[in-house]
Amino acid sequence: MLNNKKIRFLVLTWLFASFSLIFSANAMQVERMFPEGIKRGKLSTTALAELVIDGKLRQSAIGIRIYSEDNLTVTPASVDVNNVVIYYLENEFGEIQKIWILTAEEASKPIPKRP
Question: Does Signal show up as a keyword for this record (predicted)?
Fold first, then answer.
């Protein structure tokens, strides 16, 4: 037989599970925002973790940030890709400062324009 404590526990568990599903579904629908001045290219990496964008070896900035498809930061040494569509941002010296590895959905869209 269910007593008051068991009913309260079941209701709270159900509420927690429901809210978890709602918030995780909302988190998956968040669209990434990209800054002005981004460029689009295809990224490949070499065995020495060098960046090749559109067939050209590019110099990376000291504090380079690389964002995966899940928008998590990854180290340049852990990126092992071949012809992946990316957005990238250069600094004033022409070095690659930030890279966003695009999802298939993002890659199918044009570069976002700012008003």
Answer: yes
DSSP symbol at 79: -
Cα distances (angstroms) measured from residue 95 to each of 61, 64, 76: 5, 9, 14
d(CA 84, CA 44): 7
Of residues 60, 100, 108, the one with CA closest to residue 81: 100
DSSP run (H or E) holding 107: helix 104-107
Is the CB of residue 43 less than 8 Å from the CB of residue 101? yes
- To the nearest 5 percent, what fractions of the chain are helix, strand and coil? 30, 30, 40
Confidence (pLDDT) at 22: 64
DSSP secondary structure string for all residues of 1-12: ---HHHHHHHHH
Q: Per-residue pLDDT tens for 77-113?
A: 888 889 999 999 999 999 999 999 999 999 999 887 7
